[in-house]
Every structure is written in C-alpha cells, then in structure tokens.
Design goal:
The protein is mainly beta and about 120 residues long. It has no helices and 11 strands. β4 and β5 form a beta hairpin.
Length: about 120
C-alpha cells in the first residue's frame, strides 16, 4: 500500500504561484509513476500532468503547458507540481495518484485526498 498526501494548496491571486507536494509513505515512490489531476466544482476530474518513475519523462495537459512543471525527488519520496502564472480557471482540488505502470498510459492504483487551490481574479 502507498499512502499519498498532498500539500501546498491555498488561495493566490491570478498571476501568482504555488508549489504542491505529494508525499508518499508505505512504499518507495521510485517504483511508481505519478500523475496530478484536478477537479473543479461541478466538473469532472481532469488530467494535469504525469511523470515517469525516473522523472525523465513527463506529459502535460495543453491548458497548463508552459505554466506548470512537475518534478520528483525519489530520495524524499515526494513529487512536486510547480504552478506559475495561475489563472482563476485553475481553481480546483488537486490530487496526486501513483501507479506501477512503466509506460503511458499509466494506471493509477493509489490516490491522495486532495488539496484545494483557489485563484482569485
């Protein structure tokens, strides 16, 4: 079992930045690909970004390309999501997920509880 805990969410003005963290416990995160998803009120959950086990490959949703960057520190069992130039439409609960898949499309077996990101205009 892998337990995932997101942190770093909060309230920020448009144009601002936040860095989310996804900390894992239970098993080493280096054996898992990790994805970030978000869900806004009244909308379905959507893919944001994913990162391979080694961190050498990542993929981004078009809506966040050039603004969001994911990285991982396997020694710290943590994956990060740096979000810059935030827009009100980025407001959502952000979730991280982990899966043992070695290549995309990843299948996610574990999910965190989410962290709220609110961007004011």
């Amino acid at each position: 079992q892998v337990q995932l805990v997101e942190s770093g969410g909060g309230l920020v003005q448009a144009g601002g930045s936040l860095r989310l963290s996804c900390a894992a416990s239970g098993r080493t995160l280096r054996n898992y690909a990790v994805g970030w998803f978000r869900q806004a009120p009244g909308k379905e959950r959507e893919f944001v970004v994913d990162i391979s086990r080694s961190g050498s490959r990542s993929a981004y949703a078009d809506s966040v390309k050039g603004r969001f960057t994911t990285s991982r520190d396997n020694a710290k069992n943590t994956v990060y999501l740096q979000m810059n130039d935030l827009k009100p439409e980025d407001t959502a609960v952000y979730y991280c997920a982990a899966g043992v898949s070695v290549s995309r499309p990843y299948r996610y077996d574990y999910w965190g509880q989410g962290t709220q990101v609110t961007v004011s205009a």
